[in-house]
Records
---
Amino acid sequence: MLGIEPYQLISFLRQLGLALAGAASLWGMVFIYLGSKRGPNDPAAVILMWIGWRLRYLLYGGGALAISMWAAIAGLVPASAHEGITLIVSFPEILQAAQNLLPVYLSLTIVLIYGLIKKNFKWIYLLSFILVFIAISHYTDFRGLPWREIVFHAFHGFHSIFTLGTVLVLDFMFLSSRSSSILQQNIFPLFPKISKVIWIGLSLDLLSVLLIFPAAVILSPRFFFAQTVIGILIINGVLLSGIITRRILSLLHEGRAEHSRRWLLFSNIAGTISVTSWLSLTFVDFFPSLTLSYSQLIGLYFSAIAALFIFHEVWNFFDKKYQPATP
Amino acid sequence: MDVLKRIFERKSEALMFCAGAGILASVLTISLTGDFIFWKFAKFFYALGVIFIIFDR
């Protein structure tokens, strides 16, 4: 249907799960480290530790999705760049890679189960990150490939941790902090720093694309859609990590939380655009035979932005209802 | 000019904005002419913007 094969959908979901689990491990590790460096009486340390351990939910969710989709591929099947520029990977190559990764996925399963049983398992993030990094980079069989293609595939795989996964983590942090201005004051200053990693992640994809340019360029609706979304993504990211975050922080520091609401709305919209854009880019790249036209893809993209915005508002409503706001 | 300075406090942000706008413009130029020159310029701006962002405080 619409040029979408079931195995392509499975591959997309595996990439999404790995990107989420990888980014949750990475940022969980970073926040716990930053929290442990501060004094025990520092409120920022408590908040950093809190958000660091809270990311375990994303690690478990992403990990479970990736492992189950890997199991489906090992029994079934595949993949492709996030710029609408693609190296088509064949079924036997994907299957071979999935079989090679059996020890990695088994180890990840054991680490996650152990983390569920032993709540204060300190190594969970580091071990998960290493395993996810290997799994996400090695999604196709590298044997016999020229070095350019090996580098392309590896960069193309793991940059999702820094882009798609990190954007999802950022969104989770934004949603987690909406009910409290103290959380916002401590979590929002981290956003520009996290955005740097997203920019670097996108440049990794750009670098990998240069290795296969122009041979892999196909001027399809997918390509034009992906380029449009990248353009929107960059402009949106500049505004979100720049003027919007700066304005919210200055209003919060001045104690004018009421005035920051309008900017929080802008932040919410920009965050929604960011998450939808990265999901859309990853999605279209897994479906090289997609039969949708450019206008249909753009229509679906804006519908997804609206749907995610509504989801954010519903989340916020229930968050406020069941978790009374702190000052 | 002041408005622009307020929106883009840093060079990196202005460069990134140009890169994003350039990529959007290149969608039009590539579809009309098949030429990637705008696209390449935009990517160059992006790369420059990332370098500036890395060194931003």
---
Amino acid sequence: MNLARHLSSFLAAALLSFATISPLSASAQTPRADAEKDPVLKAMLEELNRSMTHLQLPGFEKPYFIEYRLEEVQDFETRAAFGATEGSHHNHARIARITVRVGDYKTDNSSPRGDGALQLTSIDDDPIALRSALWSGTDQAYKAALAAYAQKQAELKQVQTPPQADDFSKSKPIVSLADPLKLSVDENAWNDRVARDSGIYRSDPAVNANQHMIQYSTAAFHARVTTTWIASSEGAIVRKSSSSYSESIGLGTQAEDGMHLDRSYGTSGISLPDLDSPEEFHKHAVTLISSLSDLRQAPIVEEEYHGPVLLSADASADTLHSLLASGITATRPKLGTEARTNGPFASSYKARIMPDFLSVVDDPALKTWEGKYLVGSYSVDDEAVPAQTVQLVSDGHLQNYLIGRTPVRDFPESNGHARAGVTGPARPVIGVLKVTAQQGLSDDELNTRLIQLAKDRGLKSVYYVETLGTEATPRLLYRVDLDGKRTLVRGAVLDDLDQRALRSGVVAAGKNLWVANYATEIPETVLAPALLFDDVTVKRANETNDKLPYYPPPE
Amino acid sequence: MFPAKKFRLPSGSLCSSGPRSAVIATFSLLALALTLAASAQHRSKVHAAARDAAPASPVLLDTMTSELQRAFTSLGKTIPNQKDADKVLPPYFISYSVSDASAVTIRVQYGALADSNTNHVRFADVQVRIGEPKLDNTHGNHRSSAVNSLQMPLSDDRAALARTLWLATNAGYGNALDNYLRVKTEAQVRAREEDSSPDFSKEPPEVSVSAPAPSIAIDRAAWEQRIKALGLVFREFPDVYQNIAMLTVQNQTDYYASSEGSRIVAPRQQARVVVFAVTRAEDGMDLFRGQTFEAETVDGLPSQPQMESAVRELGKSLEALRKAPVTEPFDGPAILSGRASAVFFHEVLGHRLEGQRQRGDEEGQTFTKELNKEVLPPFLSVSDDPTLSTFDKTWLSGTYAYDDEGQKARRVDLIQNGVLKTFLMSRLPIASFAESNGHGRSQTGRMPTGRQGNLIVTSTKTEPEADLRKQLIDEAKRQGKPYGLYFEDISSGFAVTTRSAPQAFQVIPLVVWRVYVDGRPDELVRGVSIVGTPLAAMKRIVATSDKSEVFNGECGAESGTVPVSAVAPAMLVSEIETQRQQQGTQRPPILSIPGAPSTPASKEGQ
């Protein structure tokens, strides 16, 4: 259904973002006594000790490792449509993820599916209730671990090639206790503010002449505070807290030919002052609404084009996120193979994956960039390992992978990149991925290069991508003539923007980095320069052009 | 078969839960889903007795009426700016049904607060019908496609309300058009249908504007303490491995407008406490019990000592069940308690009397040809009466004033002196009945179908419970059985009424006793599962008690989850077949629950 499609694309675009507050208020020497002043940690440690000491099914192995990760999530969300509130929602929950390992570090029950049990726990600091949930989850996880361990032993007998690395790496336990953050927002004010946001299309004189064409207009505000407690049988004790705030708006219409046109804008940060002021947000919203009018008038892109395309730093960040982020993490390969890891760069260690003027580092310690907060920043990962800065690509060559406590060949230890969404298992994920170019060019220089390439190839026009939507679909795409004139076009999709294009198709890069904060359950940031590609395909998306509304909207 | 909303607790619900092992396995994650699903609030639509004099027409109802009128007159007209100026098909019926629902939820787990939340949402269901009542876009299995749902603004902003209704109507019209064209094609290629009734009944419009439900006024902090106290009772029972206590308070107002001229505002309130607990026997059999308390508002709920004592009984019963012997296969006489009979009648009989089950190629149509024939012993009568709000001072949760198709609720005498008289009718006609009898019900987002409200079983052959018990023993002796069975508590099962599955029912007996003929004390057994065919089981009822019991619950079916009640006296059945239920094989927890007297002390914690 069209409606559902629009709303979901808006939701996908509505940026919720997260950030980690990182001050380690205690050194690695924090005595355990400090931890036990925290009723949640005290309950976790008590049940952990009881389980490590007593949990055993007669005739079976005891656990060699138990970890409790307890997350407290507090959300406030308010939504509005067409200028009126649809209501707000609170969520306050604590969820424990319980991991039990049997066997040893070399071979245990772990599998790529993720292990352990989930339990909802109380939001009261009631020690018996907290421990009861942990007890129930530990019992369940231990029994599942015994079954998985037996299965693992059987699977090992099926393959000639032994595993390329241990199942679990050792890690020096840390004690790190950050203060929990509190959720505090003026709820009524935000209800009113998003109601106003969603009604800008009909209230602002600059755009309301075209209000009849708007098919949906929604706005939302979301605030979240997450506090995570981790305790492991190795002695790690961690308490960390993060917060995120976001305000977003999404609108859509159809062109005369039925093509769906959608735009959205979001502002986010780790505290309320990071968000746009109401005036700034309003200005962005008005620009967005005007762009819908422009898009309705814009010509459809030519049928197919192959040639130079300049991606703005914004569009480059999205592209690099999809081409790099999942490939540069190390995960356990399929049993019985000699593979190092999975994904597009599984065999690329020490090989060239980008032009030699590009380098990539993941630096979770980087908290801001040119005054902007980076939501992917964090200091301790979700396996209680301190985050490390990892030089991934030097002069175009892959030098390293992001890894958690699941080792792969040549990478026996975690570099503190195992991260988890609420209730999810920890897995290697980027934090702040920074892509830089030697001798980067200014925007003007990049434009000149783009037009020069067109002339060299005898082309009449080339393309510039200002923003990307989902799946390489440009939201704002311009045809650039040889005299530099830009014409907005609609209905395009990019193709051939793949790992090969990244390796040998980038001819120049910008010097200014764009900050792209990603609002997934695991917050990520990509810092990227504009990229000029030599040969990219631009073609018609040819999506279904649905019927225009069967009758006009109300006056 | 009967999709239930995932977040619904199994206890206290009728016909919505699967086999017991699945219930247990999903229990903890189900609880998790309760909290994490942001929109997982109760959205069932029901109407209740109007009380106050009609106030000024609310902005919401006015906007619904005028926007509906605009849609009805605009749709199907040639649109000037459309390139294809061919005339499109006009709808012959549109209805807007908006539920404005506020809720307070308090959930306690292991005696501590796990969630405390409030919620207020409005949802609009837009129904568009194209064609004619004889054949329209809802025909056959296209029925569910006629409803389009969208969240509505909460304020009285006419422009925003109208715009949202327009958005939903436009999508709904597109859907209806698509389905209508397919219905037409299918009608041409298919053999003649068994039941060639129209798709929509003709009914007069209803106008009834009551005052909206008041906003929820409860002392949340005090109720958090009360619900926690219920959960804390389980600390007396260390062999109860999981427990949840929960309060939900809902105040809801339903607004309905149709192109036929109906304009209805109907409020409804409900307060419900659910307690649910789980244990596991040494052999791996999962055991659960639930207890619910319902009233129109929290003030009508039982006192705290009464509820705590009921929870304590629940805990005792679970610990006793753990140690009870496992049942043996049995075929002999049994008594179903009033509560168990109520569940039994709802499942076995009620669902099969839903009008839409008498029509359609996939339905079993158990009773379709039984009209005016004896289907029960002549001393039994069954009615469904949503206009009753209490039975013997107990509030009935299946009460409503208007159904979800804007039809006035009314008492329907389904079975009189054992003879089948009619069915539970929505506006979907069947061969034997052309009109609704006010039982078209649904949860938000679903197409209404014929459903139960308050199912009431009455008997003219009653005896005191003691005599009934004596008769059970006599009957067991006569059949040469060492004992008869007493079903004290039965939980929801699911009724299978389609042709592709056997015509069987499944209810889950929770508490079953052996009543020995030789005077030994009654013995609790576990793992009892009833087998058999429904008609046969009901025809073997030989007597009933003189006291009726109420079961309040929630019922899930194709049209979603709706609140229902069933009222019945205890019944003596001359023959019932039971077998041992399937069971899990997981051991009970290895360590004892924290806080239990035998918990090994944690030496490290200092």
